[in-house]
């Protein structure tokens, strides 16, 4: 049995491998790449909820594994109490009121970007939808409109990996440097003249005199820029593709079950595949002693297909209970942007259902984004039939 998260063929359809891991190797060891993997829901969920044992301090990906990973990805690579302090400050920019207030802007952007594609009738769904989250995140951050296309281009470079390559490519560092420079310029502007945006909220965030430094804010913005853009784009295309593959479920979505469509896609074919953790002490897992310092891979996407928790887990079913899904993690590292991601997905899918009577996907033109951590489409050719009233 082989699980190599850097293999492009596996990235395009990892679920059969996940099933073999859950059944035959719930604690999997890859000697060549020096990591262990947990694939069952109970194990992954317990690890998410125990940062004292499963530490994030060396990073959350195998490629960017280092004691100072937080310098690049911010509080994502921190444990309590550092993580607690950073999350409290950053959450000031993600209040429920701030997220809810974005819905009119999200809907306006969705309509603006979808309208010409829908009128054309045939378009690349992945390309069209990719512009929506980048504009929403840019609106949230306060990035000028003229800079948003470049932000999208740099974000995609950050997640793309070459087949089998376990190291960060040079293109990543070049894109990261360009984004860092842009964010530092934006932070300086907001320190001088605060606006009503997330960057200003982060600059002004204060808890008993504790405030964020520029480098801390840059790390947060880099995380939000990539996670907010790429994960939502991939989720929207995954939802569109799965509804096409399952016409019975598509009919349920078209009758108004948009929230269920979002949640079942998050469970069944979520964009986030795995995160890394570092074991802090010798621990017995499935009868094997795993040493302190071991690199652990937590396969959230596999946990969401675990039949021990989800009956008929490989069935795409909008009527199921998805309450135990781990698409956004759990515990202290539960995704801070989950509400914003759900909002964007709901609005985009609502706008599509309102306009589209039916659609088809050209499977011969499908292309995948290749990343060990995010799964989704680079190209998803689509032809739509519009409602007569649209």
Structure, described:
With 390 residues, the protein is α+β, with helices and mostly antiparallel strands. Helices cover 49% and strands 12% of the residues. The strands form four sheets. The protein has a five-stranded mixed beta sheet with strand order 1-2-8-5-3, covered by helices on one side. α14 (258-269) crosses α16. The longest helix has 32 residues, at 214-245. The model has no long low-confidence stretch (mean pLDDT 90).
- Report helical residue fraction: 40-55%
- Listing every helix as H and every strand as E from the N terminus to the C terminus, the arrangement reads HHEEHEHHHHEHHHHHHHEEEEHHEEEE
Number of helices: 16
Low-confidence stretches: none
Q: Report how far apart the termini are.
A: 51 Å
**What does the main sheet amount to?**
5 strands, mixed
Overall residue-averaged pLDDT value: 90
- What is the 3D form? globular
Strand arrangement, largest sheet? 1-2-8-5-3
Number of strands: 12
Strand portion, in percent?
5-15%
Q: What is the rounded Rg?
A: 21 Å
SSE class:
alpha+beta
Q: Can you summarize this structure?
A:
With 390 residues, the chain is an alpha+beta fold. It is built from 16 helices and 12 strands. Strands 1-2-8-5-3 form a 5-stranded mixed β-sheet, covered by helices on one side. A 3-stranded antiparallel β-sheet has the order 4-12-9.
Question: Which key features would you list for this structure?
Answer:
390 residues; 12 strands; 5-stranded mixed beta sheet; 3-stranded antiparallel beta sheet; globular; alpha+beta
């Amino acid at each position: 049995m082989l699980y190599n998260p850097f293999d492009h063929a596996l990235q395009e359809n990892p679920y059969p491998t996940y099933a073999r891991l859950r059944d035959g190797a719930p604690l999997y060891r890859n000697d060549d790449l020096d990591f262990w993997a947990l694939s069952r829901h109970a194990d992954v969920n317990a690890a998410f909820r125990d940062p004292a044992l499963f530490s994030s301090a060396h990073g959350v990906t195998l490629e960017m594994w280092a004691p100072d990973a937080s310098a690049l990805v911010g509080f994502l690579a921190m444990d309590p109490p550092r993580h607690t302090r950073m999350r409290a400050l950053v959450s000031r920019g993600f209040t429920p009121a701030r997220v809810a207030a974005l819905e009119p802007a999200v809907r306006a952007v969705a309509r603006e970007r979808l309208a010409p594609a829908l009128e054309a009738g045939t378009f690349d769904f992945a390309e069209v939808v990719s512009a929506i989250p980048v504009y929403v995140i840019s609106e949230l951050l306060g990035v000028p409109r003229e800079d948003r296309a470049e932000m999208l281009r740099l974000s995609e470079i950050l997640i793309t990996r070459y087949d089998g390559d376990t190291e960060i490519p040079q293109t990543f560092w070049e894109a990261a440097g360009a984004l860092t420079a842009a964010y530092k310029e934006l932070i300086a502007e907001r320190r001088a003249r605060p606006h009503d945006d997330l960057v200003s909220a982060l600059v002004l965030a204060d808890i008993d005199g504790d405030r964020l430094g520029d480098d801390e804010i840059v790390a947060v913005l880099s995380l939000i820029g990539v996670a907010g853009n790429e994960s939502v784009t991939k989720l929207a295309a995954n939802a569109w593709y799965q509804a096409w593959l399952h016409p019975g479920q598509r009919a349920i979505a078209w009758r108004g079950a948009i929230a269920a469509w979002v949640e079942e896609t998050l469970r069944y074919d979520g964009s986030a595949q795995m995160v890394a953790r570092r074991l802090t002490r010798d621990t017995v897992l499935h009868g094997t002693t795993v040493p302190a310092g071991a690199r652990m891979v937590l396969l959230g996407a596999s946990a969401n297909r675990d039949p021990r928790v989800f009956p008929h887990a490989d069935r795409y079913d909008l009527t199921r209970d998805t309450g135990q899904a781990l698409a956004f993690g759990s515990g202290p590292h539960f995704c801070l942007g989950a509400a914003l991601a759900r909002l964007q997905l709901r609005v985009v899918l609502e706008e599509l259902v309102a306009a589209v009577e039916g659609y088809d996907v050209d499977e011969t033109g499908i292309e995948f984004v290749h990343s060990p951590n995010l799964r989704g489409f680079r190209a998803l050719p689509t032809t739509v039939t519009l409602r007569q009233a649209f």
